[in-house]
Amino acid sequence: MLANKQTSKQGKGSLQAYKEQADKAMVVVTALHLSRRLVGSSARQLQRLFHILILLLVAGALHAQAANELRIDDFSIQAGDTITVPVLLENPDTDFAALQFDLYMPSGLSVADGGFKLGERASSSHQLMTNVNGDHITVMAFSFPATNFTGQSGAVLTIDVVAAEDFDGQAVINVKNIALTTADANEHSHPDLAVTVTAQGFIVLGNEFYMNDFEIAPGTTMTVPVVLDNYASAVAGFQFDMYLPEGIATTASSFTLSDRKGETHQLVANKNGDHWSVVAFGFPTADFSGDSGDIMYIDFTASKSFVDSATIEFRNVMLATSDAHESPVEDFDVVVTAVEDSVYGDVNCDGYVTTADITALYNYLLNGDETYLATSDVDGDGAITSADVTAVYNILLGN
After folding, report:
1. Can you give the pTM of this predicted structure?
2. Is 322 helix (H, G, I), strand (E, B) or coil?
């Protein structure tokens, strides 16, 4: 089965690799072109561009699906039960006569005695051999004389999987060292597989995208995290529309990604009428790191007249995976409550009046630093001047 392996890699394999690299390059170039157009786009344009990006990913996924693929789909099983799991071969490009792989079963799952069987696509000359090698089972299906599996889609063999009486939660079956071989002895390597097995009745956590309610003092700015808990799947991009109530404001530069971003991730926020449209994505495609925690931050400024409470509305929230699947997230509201700012002259909002507040004022007056712009008008005359510096000095001197 290993004959002509080098020839196969240098022949069709190298041409396939060249084509895949060219396809990836085209996707990246197109994406970069689109990203340059994002700044200043309307919400409708942003939404269109987001879907174009997804379509580009779909195109890449469809190309990948056109290649030869051996797979075992994720499945669920009741503790103590045995189920038959098909090993599927999708081979639109090439006919194969043999295959082999190493199967690693996790704790709580095993293969029944005599549990490996040839599938519906095997010919009468096909044989199946299995051998336990320490922590894995080596599986080989072949024929003499060399005869191709029939068709281009379907099960080439099946595996009877047994779940222990105490099997609970989730486990992963690993399939490694996969090789597909043609009738003329050309061997094609294949990526390893990871098959997720879920115990029936086990609740799988989904993806959540949310912001917690918060309090803010009138006339101040506050940084609030947006949280992504993505236990169900990795996330490569997201979008949402945000509607702000009267008295709460933000700016385009107030949206930032957290340290969960990758090197290629970008975030674009655009004001469109009565709401903000926000899109985050990565090209080349990359997942956000981790499965929980802050995914981005938004700076909100409360006007001096903001009182009581109001609601920020998040609508049309969408998450996207690296393989082009979009999943909507339920709309949610965030309640913002006004709290009295009892520290007069606290420009930098640290709860105290110190020389640091004077420094913050000078940073604005001399350098244009607007970090504490919302709290710099200490004397309340509608302008930020040296009179505000004097007001803070008087507080420090007890005048």
Report:
1. 0.46
2. coil
